Amino acid sequence: MRQATGGIPAAGLGLALLLALVLLPRRAGSGDWHAGASSVCSDCHTMHNSSAGAPMRYDHDPQASPRLLRHATSLSLCIHCHDGSVPGAPDVIAPVGYVDDPAGGFFPTTWSTASGTAHVLGGDALPPPGGTQPMSLTCLSCHDPHGGPGFRNLRPDPLGTGASLTVTAKDRVKPDGTNPAAVYVAGNVIYRSGLAAWCGACHGEFHGRSAQEEGTTRPWLRHPQDEPLSTSRHADYTYWLGSLPNRVRVQSPDDDDVPTADDQVFCLSCHKAHGSANRAALVFADGARLGSTCAQCHNE
Q1: pLDDT value at position 36?
Q2: Does pTM top 0.85 for this prediction?
Q3: How far is it, in rounded angstroms, from Cα 107 to Cα 21?
Q4: CA distances (Å), 145 to each of 43, 89, 260, in order?
Q5: How far apart are the two ends of the chain, measured CA to CA in Å?
């Protein structure tokens, strides 16, 4: 048998390296998904694509997949667990199995067919609204399957430009890999910072209105972002402090309470991240009218 450095058999060294990879802690920070014991390498990958002569792929196809995946593609592998069929994995396919899912989940079930209400997965490469770079999205366009320091394993550079963007948020109930129903409700998440810049990596401009135009010369062209409602001339802050039903999400960088003076409008105040049943993935605060969302900050 060929010897490796130090007299260790090469096969034994390979096995030791494999075991080390399997047993190493995950990179995911803050207790997010795909971390620690909540998933292991063999949940997603197979070394030889067979066990006792049977295929190890979840779709029972005997052909090996790229990157030793246990499904045909990374997209179909993600959906295999995240379609509501696995209780410990967050459900992202409509109808979602949670009373109030902050992310939405209206991905079309036919990946090449656009619904007009969601980030379409696996479709043709198209420029995103407010963007110029054509993209064909998969789950891995936004999330790192092996974890990361950001909230919900979001990639720090979704557009691949060398940026380093971090979304920070706090969960009242921490995810442990088994409790998505408790974690994935809007009231559980307190957003701190970074989401607007992160979304803006792909959706940098809308209708030709650049960030520069949004500055001091033409500030009325867009909703403000990362700006406290108490100092925004766009909002009725006194109204926001009142008793509002179905309060929309805001960033709260300084405290855990809403409503307070530090609350900020951000992308998820008006849109669902994965999609919604409404056009442009909009949030309808009362479940029926866009005006009910506008009226959260603007007294009708």
Answers
A1: 66
A2: no
A3: 33
A4: 12, 13, 35
A5: 81
